[in-house]
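Protocol step 4 of 6: record predicted structures for both targets in the notebook before any analysis. Target 1:
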Amino acid sequence: MPRRSRAPTEHEWIRRLQTRLGPQPPAVRVGSGDDAAALRIGGTTLLVTTDALVAGVHYRPGWLSPRALGERAYRVNASDIAAMGGRPLAAVMALEVPRGIRAATLDGVVAGFVAAARRHRAGLIGGNLARGPALAITVTLLGLADGRVVTRAGARPGDHIVVTGELGAMGTAVRDRRRGRPTPLPRVPDRVAAGALLARVASAMIDVSDGLVQDLEHVARASGVAIRLAAARIPVAVACRRRLGARATAFALTAGEDYELVCAVPPRRLAALDRLAPRLGCRLSRIGVVGRGRPAVTVLDGDGRPLHLAGGGFDHLAAPPRRR
């Protein structure tokens, strides 16, 4: 019998798709494959990103209020803009709604989105409404890059890896919820201001949406470098440590949905990073280094041995879903 070919992972499929997109318009500075696309229009760099929240995939009905859903839909997109060093400008929203949904639910989603966007002086300027099997919120967010546009492709051997905030809180809360424990879901952190500051010193940057290791693998591949992380330096959230104990670090490395920023910083810019750190509004941790070798991410324990990680981050093409 002929052997069945293995189905591609989400990111394998995306990389395959990128080879088929053909030549890009001259205005495109950064195309598919980064946190956001970047277009040069006149003297302005416009950033464009899109993301979705789908009931039953990204959350379960009842886990978040409509207003909290709207805020989350905005902030996960703003995180992509932050990872490029930009600031949000305006958004359009497409709502897919099931039969019988209450108007108050939709009002709450929009109100939460608009309130979150207003904090960045961004606005909701249009969208679409269509019938569907479950509530889905798809957002396209435009942003502006006033300074350097930081991509995933600039990391070089010798750079230091740093990450904002803490990891594992959202993953822990989702794990608890799935097991019947009504743990509150953390809000997506606002790292727009931090991203603009880090863009001054970072050689590469990405937001942590699918798990720290998986997202840093994108940086390693785009930059053609090997990345080594020190398990002892990973800033694991208190709730994650309390719940998982000795397994907390491994869980936090792959759980995802932290929406923190992780970047590579050249040694010559570390002094500048230290000066910026008090202005970031969040914790900043040095967790690893960039080296030469096959593009990959290795996590080392206290004895310098590779740490085995059972999971590799979220994959939307995997069946059944691992996390939700």
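Target 2:
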Amino acid sequence: MRAHGLPVGVFEEAQRKGLEIIDATCPMVTKIHVQAEKLKADGYKIIVIGDPAHPEVKGTLSHVPGAWCIQKVEDVEGLPRSSRVGVVVQSTWSGHQFTEIVKALAAKYYEVRAVNTICTDTHNRQKEASRLAHDVEVMVVVGGKTSANTKHLADLSESHGARSYHIEDASELRPEWFEGVHVAGLMSGASTPGWLVDQVESRMEELSRQPA
């Protein structure tokens, strides 16, 4: 089972077939499942904040059938009525977006119980990307192109003033990105291997020594 987890039905089918199951689900993802199930058992209508097409969210939704899934503040207005709602959030989601959505839910529903299930490492990386972007002219973010949290790091850096490039390896670096640049930053996604970041760093240093 991948780190993002799998829908309950896939896991049960593997069991029925007698397959050997190696569960590599991230503990933070398992925590989301547990919290969502507890909220549902306590009588709350479950709301999952996240991308419904993301494997992690698909898995979470399978643990609490009938849950609502939303991605932005504007989605709150279209939700059905309910007296009590319980909220969990995709582990790689933006902390700021989570806060704003919970505020909107609190304004709409009588009782809102929200559990912040954002991964601590993801939160710290987002915070650091925002801080570092103010101090650099260009930010290079290393990680999978399909990784939601890595893409968000690049978007955060861009929104805080740094021209940002999201790459998967050092071969994608281009000399023209750094022309006239005095300070460049380097960030990586939570699951990006350290050796890959080292390669990108080395290549950036090589480019910095090349004559303009």
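Step 5 preliminary note on target 2. The chain has a mean pLDDT of 91. The radius of gyration is 20 Å.
Proceed to step 6 after PI sign-off.
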